[in-house]
Design brief:
Blueprint lengths: L2 E6 L2 E6 L6 H4 L7 H28 L2 H20 L4 H28 L6 H25 L3 H21 L4 H7 L3 H14 L25 H10 L1 H25 L9 H18 L1 H26 L11 H27 L5 H18 L3 H7 L1 H17 L16 H31 L6
Antiparallel strand pairs: 1-2
Helix pairs in contact: 2-3, 2-4, 2-14, 3-4, 3-6, 4-14, 5-11, 7-8, 10-13, 10-14, 10-16, 11-13, 12-13, 12-16, 13-14, 15-16
Length: about 450
């Protein structure tokens, strides 16, 4: 049997993995060379940063569907090469390019998924989309246990990618993209007709009059440069984007800190990651409940606060025999961090105007990639001090819970068409708030003067 030893905080973990292999064992990437292993994980997200820039631009310029196909195709090609890697640098390059392809398609397919849905179905649609992530994470640990070689695991991912690209060829482009981004009413109606037909709805598109965006002339559409300039011209959209990106950095750091650090929090490597994946899946399935009753904004505040509290509870030294309080609290905390992570993308897609949705999700994902770059290094932080790392996670989670307070609620509200509409909604909300303040002031004055009786 091959036994891997890792020194963590002065305590050695011995994982009996039988005849299984990993690239860490094949290329001696542990102990004083463990940083090379965490670097491989970080390289995936480094490749994802340009992938998000390119993917956001492609999604808004050429379409969500084409971008998704391009991204998945890149992943298939790169992973085939990765499965045959014979050197560390070769796998490192493949990991970087794999991150590029993954994040080219990730936002595009997410936008395509949500733009096919009515506002009242977005939370459920988001749950279905994210459940695939949770299911894949849950299956990863048992597959790694059953397959006695890391190359086989990559070949399985190639097979899954090849299967996943098939449905994308069977659906049309988003009607929102055709009409808002391209000004193509004809193809927009064709997409609507396809959706109606496959949902058994009798729809005559000849009798439909599609509404133009506010501030957009009948025969014109904004250029990509004009769309980018709107992030600077409209203060409200800039504030919203900045707040979402701050939350993205924090939640990604916490999420991926656990995603790559469960080996330091349990004695059984495979069970630790299996339970973490199962927690992700359970979180995703239950997400619509708080979204339904609390809304997106309040749900995210609760997720961050609960996560921060559980990280502090994990500091209590208590052993139940089959699990420690530290492991249980970290699992619960990571579940709520996952809920905040997944909810953040739904929230952003609903706040973003149609013409900027791909770019806003792209900027959010870039912020998340910054946190994800730091996340694998938390694997080394756990070696420095588990208690200190958990305190840092708790403080960051509580700080992140304060950010959504400034943002508007998006549940059940029609998504804005343009940045101008986002700004107008802010002005209307500020006007209503001012009117309420004036009304309360007037009532106090009337009550004080005794002109009328105020209940």
């Amino acid at each position: 049997a091959v036994v891997s030893t890792q020194s963590t905080g002065g305590t050695d973990f011995f994982w009996d993995i039988g005849s299984r292999t990993s690239y860490a064992l094949d290329w001696n990437l542990f102990c004083d060379r463990e940083y090379l292993s965490t670097t491989l994980n970080s390289l995936f997200f480094i490749g994802g940063i340009p992938g998000l820039f390119v993917g956001g631009w492609l999604a808004d310029m050429f379409g969500r569907r084409i971008t998704t196909i391009f991204g998945i195709g890149c992943c298939i090609l790169v992973n085939v090469i990765a499965a045959m890697s014979s050197r560390y640098w070769m796998l490192a390059l493949c990991r970087t390019l794999s991150g590029f392809g993954t994040f080219v398609c990730y936002n595009a397919v997410y936008i395509l998924f949500l733009e096919f849905c009515a506002p009242q179905h977005r939370a459920f649609a988001c749950t279905l989309h994210m459940a695939q992530w949770g299911l894949g994470t849950t299956l990863l640990a048992p597959l790694a246990y059953l397959l006695h070689g890391w190359r086989w695991l990559i070949w399985i991912s190639v097979l899954m990618l090849a299967i996943s690209i098939v449905p994308v060829f069977l659906v049309p482009e988003s009607p929102r993209f055709y009409f808002t981004n391209k000004g193509d009413e004809k193809n927009a109606k064709r997409s609507l007709q396809w959706l109606a037909k496959n949902n058994n709805v009798d729809l005559n598109t000849d009798n439909i009059q599609l509404e133009k965006n506010a501030g957009q002339a009948d025969d014109t559409k904004p250029s990509q440069l004009e769309v980018l300039k709107e992030f600077l011209e409209y203060r409200e959209m800039t504030i919203q984007l900045a707040a979402l990106m701050i939350m993205g950095v924090i939640v990604a750091f916490i999420y991926y800190g656990f995603a790559f650090g469960w080996g330091k929090l349990g004695s059984d490597l495979y069970l630790s990651y299996f339970y973490a994946g199962l927690g992700d899946l359970l979180t995703i399935i239950l997400q619509p409940v708080p979204h339904m009753y609390l809304g997106r904004r309040k749900s995210m505040i609760v997720y961050f606060l609960v996560a921060g509290c559980t990280f502090l509870v994990a500091l209590i030294p208590l052993d139940f025999g089959f699990i420690t309080l530290e492991q249980l609290s970290c699992l619960v905390g990571s579940m709520f961090s996952s809920a905040a992570f997944f909810s953040l993308f739904l929230y952003t897609s609903e706040l973003a105007p149609d013409a900027q949705r791909g770019k806003m999700l792209g900027f959010l994902s870039i912020a998340c990639r910054v946190g994800a770059l730091l996340g694998p290094q938390a694997n080394l932080m756990f070696e420095w001090s588990k208690q200190g790392t958990l305190v840092i996670f708790a403080v960051l989670a509580v700080l992140a819970s304060l950010v959504p307070i400034r943002l508007p609620e998006s549940r059940g509200i029609k998504t804005p068409a343009t940045a101008a509409e986002v700004e107008e909604r802010r002005r209307q909300k500020a006007g209503r708030r001012k009117e309420k303040v004036e009304e309360r002031r007037r009532q106090k004055l009337v009550e004080k003067n005794g002109d009328v009786q105020v209940e």
